[in-house]
Structure formats: structure tokens, C-alpha cells
Amino acid sequence: VLENHDLQDSIKPQKVEFHSLNFNTTLHWQPGWAREARDALYFVQYKVYGQSTWQNKDECWGISSRVCDLTHETSDIQEPYYSRVRAALAGVYSSWSLSCRFTPWRETMIGPPMVTVVHSNKSITVKLQAPRSPYRRKRGSKIPMTNYYDLLFQVFIINNLLDEQHRVLVYEGKEKVIKIQDLRPGISYCIVAKMYMPMLDHSSAYSSRQCTML
């Protein structure tokens, strides 16, 4: 019995955490500390804070992976959720490991916008597209993150002659098409952008850079 109890402890999942980007939400965990814990199978449950009963996540029931997609289960983005994971090995089950509380609206990370650049001889036109959530409108298109938050585009220009890291903010606002004027011909400029959320003072990562030579 003691051996079983030791095994229970040593295979118990560690660091159970929600990761979320644009409401695409996954649960991640680490294996227990025993070497054989790598061969364990895992079982995931979830619930809304305040509910008494846990729900099984069928697709993550007896899996060897250490990631479980809970995007669909956390779609009420204002609600706080919990999840928990237990491991099984050689017929022995660990106790449950509990995640921290997770509220999608407050804690999801916003991704960067998509950026397209078109140039003429002295100006650059920048087209911006907000990241999309996994949730769909009735007609089937994915709902942009701007529907859920008051988000601003921030557009930066990098003059490659000066310095790779020297980004100058040239626009902040909600327009999806902006024009940067009075640029010098024959110089390579790069554009990067990010989403900014004033209310929670969050910024996304930078978009990939789009470069053009005037």
C-alpha cells in the first residue's frame, strides 16, 4: 500500500495552467517528478467557479499528451473557470492537481494584427486586420477580437538606415487603412503593428515586419 501511495504522489501532475491567445484556450501541465511518470495517462475535468460538479473533458480522458484544448468549454468569456488533472499509471491514480482560477475575458492574450503594406513613391499605405477569436458568427465567419474589447491599432515605422530597433509610433487608433506620407525615396522602411487595449493596459506582441523600398 505504501508503494502505491508513493506512486500516487510521484505521478501527480505539476503546474496545471491555462494558456489563452485570442480566446483559444488550452490547459497545460507537467508530469510528476518520478521518472516513470512520463508514461502516465491523464484525465481532465473543468467547471465554472461556484458550480459543485466537475465535468469530464471527454477528448482529454486517458490521454498521454500534456495539453488539453478547452476553447469550447470556456466560451462564456466573462465566467471564471477551474480545471484539474489527475494521472494514472499501472492502475494507480494520483490525486487531482488544480489550476488557478481563469477568466477568459481578463486573462486571454491578444495577438498582433495582420499587416499588409502597399507603397507608392513617397508614401506607404498600411492595411490592418485585427486578430480573430475562435467563435463564429451565425454566417460562419470568425468574430474579430475588436468585438470583445475596445482595441486600438498601434503602427510603428522602422527606418532601416537608422537602427533596426528604433521603432517610431506613427499611428494609434481604430482605422484599418492608414497612409504614411512624406517618406524618402530609395530608403527601405519596415512596418510593425500591435494591438493595444487601453482599459486593461495590455499590448499584444508585435506583428511580423513588413518591409518595402520606396
From TrEMBL:
Record-linked Pfam families: Interfer-bind, Tissue_fac
MF annotations from Gene Ontology: cytokine receptor activity
CC terms in the record's Gene Ontology section: extracellular region; plasma membrane
Start and end residues of each Interferon/interleukin receptor domain: 108-212
UniProt superkingdom: Eukaryota
Keywords: Disulfide bond, Receptor, Repeat, Secreted, Signal
Subcellular localization: Secreted
All copies of domain Fibronectin type-III, residue ranges: 9-96
InterPro entries documented for this protein: FN3_dom, FN3_sf, Ig-like_fold, Interferon/interleukin_rcp_dom, Type-II_Cytokine-TF_Rcpt
Record-stated family: Belongs to the type II cytokine receptor family.
General function of this protein: Receptor for IL22. Binds to IL22, prevents interaction with the functional IL-22R complex and blocks the activity of IL22 (in vitro). May play an important role as an IL22 antagonist in the regulation of inflammatory responses.
Name recorded for this polypeptide: Interleukin-22 receptor subunit alpha-2
Annotated source species: Prunella fulvescens (Brown accentor)
